[in-house]
Amino acid sequence: MNDQSPTSQARAPEAPEARPPARPEPSRLVRVLFEGGVGRNMGLVAVLVLLAVVGVVTAPRTFPTVSNLLTVLTSASIIGVLTVGVTFVIIGGGIDLSVGKVMALASVWATTVATQSFGALVMIFCALAVGVGAGLVNGVLIAYGRIVPFIATLAMLISAQGLAELISGRRSQIVTDPVIAAIASTRILGIPLLVYLFAVVIAVGWVVLNRTTFGRRTFAIGGNAEAARLAGVDVRRHTVLLYVVSGLCCGIAAIMIASLTTTGSSTHGTLYELDAIAAVIIGGTLLTGGRGTLVGSILGVLVFTVITNLFVLNNLAIEVQNIAKGAIIVVAVLIQARARRSSTT
Amino acid sequence: MNDQSPTSQARAPEAPEARPPARPEPSRLVRVLFEGGVGRNMGLVAVLVLLAVVGVVTAPRTFPTVSNLLTVLTSASIIGVLTVGVTFVIIGGGIDLSVGKVMALASVWATTVATQSFGALVMIFCALAVGVGAGLVNGVLIAYGRIVPFIATLAMLISAQGLAELISGRRSQIVTDPVIAAIASTRILGIPLLVYLFAVVIAVGWVVLNRTTFGRRTFAIGGNAEAARLAGVDVRRHTVLLYVVSGLCCGIAAIMIASLTTTGSSTHGTLYELDAIAAVIIGGTLLTGGRGTLVGSILGVLVFTVITNLFVLNNLAIEVQNIAKGAIIVVAVLIQARARRSSTT
Amino acid sequence: MRGIVKTFPGVRALDGVDLDVAAGEVHCLLGQNGAGKSTLIKVLAGAHRPDAGAITWAGAPVAFGSPHAADAAGIATIHQELDLVPGLSVAENVVLGHEPARLGFTRPRDAEKTARRLLARLGHPEIPPRRELGELSAAGQQIVGMARALARDARLIVMDEPSAVLDPEEVRNLFRVIRELTADGVAVVYISHRLEEIREIGDRVTVLKDGRTVARNLPARTTPTADVIRLMTGRALEYVFPPSTGPAGEVVLEVDGLGRAGEFADVAFTVRAGEVVGLAGLVGSGRSEILETIYGARRADTGGVRVRGRALPRGSVPAAVRAGLGLCPEERKTQALLLDEPVMRNVSLASLRRFARGGFLGGEAELADAGVVTAQLDVRPADPRRPARTLSGGNQQKVVLARWLLHGCTVLLLDEPTRGVDVGARSEIYALVRRLAGEGVAVVLVSSEVPEVLGLADRVLVVREGRIVHAGPAAELDEHRVLDLVMEGADMTADGLAGAGS
Amino acid sequence: TSNEAPSSGSGANVAAAAGDNATPGAPVTIGFSAPAADHGWIAAIANNAKAQAEQYPDVTFAPVNPTNDVAQQIAAVETLINQKVDALVILPNDGSQLTSLGRRAMDADIPVINLDRVFDSPLAYRTWIGGDNYGMGVSAGTYIGERLRAANVTNPVIGEVAGIDNLPLTQERSRGFSDALASYGFAVGPRQAADFTAQGGQRVTANLLQAAPKLDALWNHDDDQGIGVLAAVNQAGRTEFFMVGGAGSANAMRDIQADNTVLKATVTYSPTMASSAIALARLVAQNRGMGDLVEKEVPTSITLASATITRDNVADYLPLGFES
Ligand SMILES: Nc1ncnc2c1ncn2[C@@H]1O[C@H](COP(=O)(O)OP(=O)(O)OP(=O)(O)O)[C@@H](O)[C@H]1O
Ligand SMILES: Nc1ncnc2c1ncn2[C@@H]1O[C@H](COP(=O)(O)OP(=O)(O)OP(=O)(O)O)[C@@H](O)[C@H]1O
Ligand SMILES: [Mg+2]
Ligand SMILES: [Mg+2]
């Protein structure tokens, strides 16, 4: 990609400053996209294309339709929003196991009779506040209480589950507010509002991660927390903020799932954390932090969703689905790793 | 092989051998125990004592009885055996999400009509073989396929679940073999056989981890895989073996759970992986590998089991259980961290 | 700085240290490994809080509670352990913590411009600011680290062993920049174990020993080397290379046509028992790769390696170790040490089989034998049960050597064995290498310090861009000749290195 | 259990179409969605539905991917609506959460047969058929109350091992149980929730038996988890109480028949309702009524009765028992 290996300079002692950066600049858009993760994720794109081909071949009448595509995107949207938050946390060197149940708790809190009586805005505020609050607790326990993220967020998972059950009395709380109920059924230009919401969260997440000091410092902290500290970054405050971002995503997802299912329930989001983390890692983010792309995580979510969609359209038995799903994940990761290796050499 | 015995070199004349380790030696047993993890886990012991006090106060007639203690130990035994395997994997720098469902698969495979017709020995062999085989696949994917452990074992979790469902037809397979069925109800000197089994697995695991080259290399690989490789350790083969150890534990646990519930079922072991990993981490093992104690992991399992037992004895509702459980985990970890910090200074 | 005290669990790293630095001077900080140099500058940089003592900055007492505070006061630090983030780009590393931003949105172009300007100033306009830092060589990363410090327009720049991974040409560049800085009135604190560098660039010298200041503000150019060494080590030490121990034995290591695509090609040489062969070359010339390939840590594309006539399988470290090879790799911390494990276990790692009976360990032999070899190498502190992390750099290097001393090898491959090692330990390592050679071990030595290669090796191979361009007895070469060969005859003997060596 | 010798044709229960309704009508496609079977009862539901559909030459059976995730079930049923099936049989993971989906199907002129877990709005289904959870609790409570009263026990300790506590059905069963016991002047003692699995049943019961050193009776909501409950009871060597099961698995019935465990009765909650649901869906899609009823339409709601199976009548019910 560039002709000058970093060490080649060592062999050219004379005329050092006479050498301008010779690399031709690719078009800005291409560069932004590549830098943002598409380039590193060609393998996942290939996997998606492969899955699409399988879909077209096995379900030619149902798979390649607009309405099916929108169904896939809608199914992906909720876990996708959670995945955005989890991507931030993992790139920053942490992990968040609590997202699924924090979302459930936020959905329950936002749909109590009392909250609903104040209308849609208060419900949305309430969901976001619960998400942010839970994220804050996670972050403070981890950054200041020095509890390892795995344990702190696992404890949050369990407690949020319990609290959601307590508040809801273990019942599904029905959304009566027409505005919230309408979110999932509204379409603009034929595309569900949930899909727009998903797109906005991705876009904002991408900009924050790649174009703000917050995002770049997230990479720094995940890559080398000590170096970030020595460079004057307030690592602990930043860590708290990362979990708050994740909590905020839970709040947004809570509104979405409340609208999609027209209920708030403590059973929402069970095991979503594993799916979200798996999507992030398949997307090429290191579990140890410091490296990763949001685009990869989203592609990971799409891979999972398309697999499920394919299974449904082909009406496979669940046990066969599971066996195949495990194998597909392994193959996807192998393809992705191979593609990345060959692109960097 | 080489003519210079290194020890002879080491005793070369000018060596200042007049420098013996000057620190007074504590008694050997005390030292072995401390080194083995009790010392570093005084915090967890304190948490257990605290829980016991709560038990004695809140359920004075039912908690402090021998039969209740044995119930706690029996409940702990299955997840405890899995935790032993997971401890090896995590200390070696990996993670194993598949243990719960590999155990389920092994339990199903060992209890099919065909297998049961060959009798108990074949059933036991079958369970162990399934566990070892799954571990082998995990290990090879990770060590030679270079798939990150999180993804490889997640794929195994999903596939094992599917395979278990396929084989069992999603039904509970009842254990008809009297020998297997008797394991859980046999008592020796009043103590259930399962508890002995648990103790044996812990003891063997402890010796292997702390007193063999295998264990030493496990720490080395988890601490710095590259350094271990350059020191001549066959890191990939060792990694495979680590997952095989974990798989073997799954096989043992499968026999235990088949006996305890008198069934083999694909529903066994759901979410056991999270509990096992949480116990390992609460026990002070670093999720990044290289450091940890088996004793800590076992104490972690006991903390979880005693919490559940206390809740049941006090007839608490499940939502209250969950909220409290999250908080107790956080407090336990804080106590443990504080105890460790003060013990090292 | 006055009376600085800093204790770590079990260690009193600083025990009343004084340091005065004047504007516009290069103040050198000397001391053995573990003397407390890095700890002192971490206190200065706000990374550690001192237990006692006072810091006066520009006439006013200050207490830096965080790196940020020191930074705001105008103190920039290049730490000994690279304080960079591998996953970020070069430019982002340069501006980390002070990203040019508007409303929180970064301005990558400004950052790249800054990085390009600073890298050019350091003589490296060709390092692409957008390249991911982790893809650069260690030397490249060190240069980015320096650019980072320059980015702050600091009034005091602290450099903790910046030259350890640099070759002579890079060091020359560094010195040029330091001179420019001091000319502008910037103060520089410079730490190095290479005394000839101190002599060239330093103005005043402060010497630390065991966490105490033993000499302050000595004139750097006129104080006799012997005095400095005595102050540091507490003993008179001759900074010379031990003599070669006579004729070599039969050929033990044969390397034949070894090559790896893109790294090196056609590497062929032999080493005899008792012979020390040195590989000289620039940083990035591929010497480490050659060693690692011989050792099986990288799989050769072409050629082969024979030990005592038996061919080694490609790409198998265990086979190489069984055949009697041992490697002390270039990066101690990432490639050699288990930092959290006791010294004893680091030492015994390659020899576990010896202490095991049927796979079971547990005898006291392991501790005892590890204790003997570490004592032999004078690893300090002497307790082999201490975690390796708490040892200073030089002592960590000795631990790695002790590993192979305990294991015993026919062929010892040493990659930069004295990087970051103080004079005392250095001479001990030299003596050890010589002694091993005398006992019949074949040694291959890679070093970026030409005098070291010339002084220690019987035969020198010069590597340039992955090829051996010269092979011959060390006695027939001098430093200028080697540098000529290394740099492809570039004219560089005239100015920068005139004062170097001795 | 799959390892038992195959009996009564894979254990699925089908109703033969009788009378007028036996004649094939217009060909119809019936979509079917249920939770993923991780449990004998749910497995029996799926099996029964499939077996019943195969009885009819005029029915094309279109089941979708069973799942335990509400969002996924919504997506799956949406594909059926997109395909414009003629009728839908839905056993929702959660009735409330799928109500809007039922509405959408009904609005698209696809009649919905709501199986067991009820939607919130009658507009979301054409007909509901399901079991009587409250009645099941009442049956269990009544049996225990009668038996204890007959034995002249005063202040009995009555334990309860519930299913997944989050489910409304569990809460209704418990309510029925305690209401029935209250009519005898008894109350529920130690109560713990398991998770419908043998393993959960064993774990919870092992601890619950510690909490209650002496028990008089125990109701376990579900015969699948009952295997584990019974295992825990046997392992503890406890025989001083009797136990009542729930749902009516063949395995539990065999234990009752053999009369060598503490299990003395079980109250039914029969998965045969799935067979009936398919039959109803066919009739609704073909605009037919139910043969024996005067009405020309299928009723909007059918509730199954919960029978109490004891040693006396177990032989009658054994063919209807599902394999756990
Ligand atoms: N984080 C730490 N924890 C415990 N001990 C430490 C720590 N950091 C340094 N030490 C100890 O403090 C002493 C001084 O270490 P320091 O790194 O300052 O030495 P140095 O002079 O920089 O040596 P070198 O030349 O090898 O870099 C050493 O004995 C070291 O083992
Ligand atoms: N991280 C890296 N990524 C890509 N290429 C690299 C990297 N590090 C080194 N190289 C390439 O490998 C070759 C040898 O590099 P290396 O710095 O290891 O050589 P060396 O002679 O051992 O130098 P040193 O003096 O540092 O030991 C060079 O061509 C260099 O460009
Ligand atoms: Mg230092
Ligand atoms: Mg090198």
Can you offer a commentary on this structure?
The complex is a heterotetramer, with two copies of chain A (345 residues), one copy of chain C (502 residues) and one copy of chain D (324 residues). Chain A has a single domain, classed as ABC transporter involved in vitamin B12 uptake, BtuC, CATH 1.10.3470. In chain A, strand 2 and strand 3 form a beta hairpin. The N terminus of chain A is likely disordered. Chain A has 345 residues and is mostly helical. Chain A starts with 27 loop residues before the first helix and ends with a helix. The longest helix of chain A is centred in the last third of the chain and has 27 residues. Chain A has a two-stranded antiparallel ribbon. In chain A, strands 2-3 form a two-stranded antiparallel ribbon. Chain C is of the alpha/beta class and 502 residues long. Chain C folds into two domains: 232 residues, Rossmann fold; 147 residues, 3-Layer(aba) Sandwich (Rossmann fold), CATH 3.40.50. In chain C, strands 6-9-10-3-11-12 form a six-stranded mixed sheet, sandwiched between helices. The radius of gyration of chain C is 23 Å and the shape is globular. The C terminus of chain C is likely disordered. By secondary structure, chain D is of the alpha/beta class. Helix content of chain D is 39%, strand content 17%. In chain D, strands 2-1-3-4-5-11 form a six-stranded parallel sheet, with helices on both faces. In chain D, helix 4 packs parallel to helix 5. Chain D is elongated. Chain D starts with 27 loop residues before the first strand and ends in a 7-residue tail after the last helix. The chains are: A mainly alpha (345), C alpha/beta (502), D alpha/beta (324). One adenosine-5'-triphosphate binds next to helix 9 of chain C. The site of one magnesium ion (MG) has 5 residues of chain C, from helix 1.
Under the CATH scheme, the architecture of the largest domain in chain C is: 3-Layer(aba) Sandwich
Number of domains of chain C: 2
Give me the number of helical elements of chain C: 18
Helix-residue proportion of chain D:
25-40%
Give the bound compounds: adenosine-5'-triphosphate, magnesium ion
Largest sheet of chain C: 6 strands, mixed
What is the molecular shape of chain D?
elongated
Distance between the termini of chain D: 5 Å
